[in-house]
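Q: Please design a sequence for this.
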């Protein structure tokens, strides 16, 4: 089968034939139709996630996908050959930029029936990131006020739609050129961060979701109300979060130090501070499928490229100027 992978960190992606995988107990082989492009991919290519990937090379890139079950390992009874599925394999795992993929059977869910494989592939990682951060961690409720920092990116655009679907009052920051786009996603207010003063325009929110980082994470604590929640996906995980990934104690200590200033800011603002790291979640994918089939969320594609164009896709992703999602059409449909 053909796959896009790295043989040396920092080197261009290679696309060529590699050995076709087979399923072990509890796994399925999926014929990949499409896979989305995420910042995880260029970070994996550059070796910035070596602690997660354990430095194993060659490494096939790609973290989420949509496709069809082609084979089952022993003990897999929930899926049959030909089932259309989508899923997220886990941070740093890779394998989706390939014609076939081996994935754990309990990490996948049925693909939204109203979406093509290219559209469905754009949902798993960003959708689960937003769902887990807003619903599972921040417990966003109906009529609460949500601010999404970075509302036009992959995660941000999904967060806006999930917030609206939850019945929240949603505002989001974006550049001037993306104001109409963010409003079309359903946001009650789109804020041009280049020309507006956030502290003047935005009343304090129950939940502030940071997808940008840097100075914007620092500003988040000035925008959240007392008793509210700041949740970010841009910071190094806290010690507890790293422990959940099985990181050694010295790495957990790094998480504590890295989040020290933000923890102080949270204490001063009298709010909760959470660092979210996305995880495979079949139940979450099921919830996202229901929202998609009900028309409550919709993937917005920035561009669709082929398997031979992965290197170009990584360069576009690195620019951080993508509105919506980049998708690799693996099957060439």
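A: Design:
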């Amino acid at each position: 089968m053909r796959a896009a992978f790295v043989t040396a960190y920092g080197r261009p992606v290679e696309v060529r034939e590699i050995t076709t995988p087979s399923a072990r107990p509890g796994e399925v082989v999926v014929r990949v139709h499409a896979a989305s492009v995420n910042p995880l991919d260029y970070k994996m290519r550059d070796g910035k996630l070596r602690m997660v990937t354990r430095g194993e090379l060659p490494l096939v890139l790609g973290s989420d996908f949509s496709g069809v079950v082609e084979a089952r390992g022993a003990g897999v009874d929930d899926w049959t050959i030909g089932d259309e599925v989508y899923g997220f394999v886990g941070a740093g795992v890779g394998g989706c930029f390939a014609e076939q993929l081996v994935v754990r059977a309990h990490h996948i869910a049925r693909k939204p029936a109203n979406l093509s494989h290219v559209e469905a592939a754009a949902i798993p990682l960003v959708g689960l990131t937003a769902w887990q951060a807003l619903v599972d961690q921040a417990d966003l409720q109906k009529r609460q006020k949500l601010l999404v920092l970075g509302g036009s990116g992959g995660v941000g655009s999904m967060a806006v739609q999930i917030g609206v679907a939850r019945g929240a009052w949603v505002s989001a920051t974006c550049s001037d050129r993306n104001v109409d786009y963010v409003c079309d996603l359903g946001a009650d207010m789109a804020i041009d961060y280049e020309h507006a003063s956030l502290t003047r325009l935005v009343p304090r929110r129950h939940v502030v979701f940071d997808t940008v980082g840097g100075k914007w994470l620092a500003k988040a604590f000035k925008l959240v109300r007392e008793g509210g929640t700041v949740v970010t996906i841009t910071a190094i995980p806290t010690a507890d979060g790293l422990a959940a990934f099985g990181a050694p104690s010295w790495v957990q200590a790094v998480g504590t130090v890295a989040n020290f200033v933000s923890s102080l800011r949270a204490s001063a603002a009298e709010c909760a501070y959470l660092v979210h790291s996305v995880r495979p979640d079949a139940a979450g994918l099921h919830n996202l499928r229901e929202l998609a089939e009900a028309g409550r969320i919709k993937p917005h594609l920035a561009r669709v490229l082929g398997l031979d164009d992965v290197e170009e896709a990584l360069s576009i992703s690195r620019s951080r100027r993508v509105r919506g999602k980049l998708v690799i059409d693996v099957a060439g449909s």
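Q: Thanks. Anything notable?
A: The mean pLDDT is 91. The chain is about 30% helix and 25% strand.
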